[in-house]
Amino acid sequence: MGLLENENLIQFIKYALAGGLATVTHIFVFHLVGWKLFPCLQKKDHFVKLLKLKLPELSNKQRSRNSMFANGIAFLLSNMVAYITNVLWVFQSGRHSIIVEIALFYAVSGVSVFLGTVLMGWLIKRFGLLTTYAFASNIFTAVMINYVLRKFVIFQG
C-alpha cells in the first residue's frame, strides 16, 4: 500500500470515528425529542424497551410527521458535532471561507438527511415500519452521500 492510500485509509477511519460520534449524538437527540417533544416512538422500539418509557398511542400518520420533526432537530445538533470534529480532526479547512464552508457542510448534510427523512417518513406511513428501523434508513442515506462530497467539494481533501 502506497503512502497516499495509507493516508486516505487513516483519513477515512478518522472520518468514520467522527461520524460515529455525530451519529450517536443524532440517535440520542432523535430519541429524546421523539420521546418528549414530538412523540414518535413505539413500545417495541429498542430505546423504549431499554428505558421502559411510557408512550402515548399514535397513528402511523402522527408518528411519521413527528419522526420527521424529531429528525430535523437531531440533524441541527449532530451536524454541528460532525462539522467541528471534521474540521479539527479529519479534513483540512481552507478551500472556502468559514461561512461558506459551514453553509456547504449543512447544505450537503441537509440534502442527505432530507432524502433519508422522507424515506423514513414514507416507510413508517406506508408500511408501519418500526421507528427504529425506519430511522436507520436516514443514517445509511447520509453516510453514503456525505463523505465524498465533504472530501472533494467542501474541504481540501
Quick rundown:
The chain is mostly helical.
Description of the molecule:
With 157 residues, the chain is mostly helical. It has one domain (3-154). Helices cover 80% and strands 0% of the residues. It is built from five helices and no strands. The protein has helices spanning 3-36, 46-51, 60-90, 98-127, 131-154. α1 runs antiparallel to α3 (60-90). The radius of gyration is 17 Å and the shape is elongated. The model has no long low-confidence stretch (mean pLDDT 89).
Largest sheet: none
The total count of helices amounts to: 5
Give the domain tally: 1
- In round numbers, the mean pLDDT is 89
Offer a few descriptive terms.
elongated, single chain, 80% helix, 5 helices, 157 residues, mainly alpha
List the helices and strands and how they pair.
Blueprint: H1 3-36, H2 46-51, H3 60-90, H4 98-127, H5 131-154
Helix pairs in contact: 1-3, 3-4, 4-5
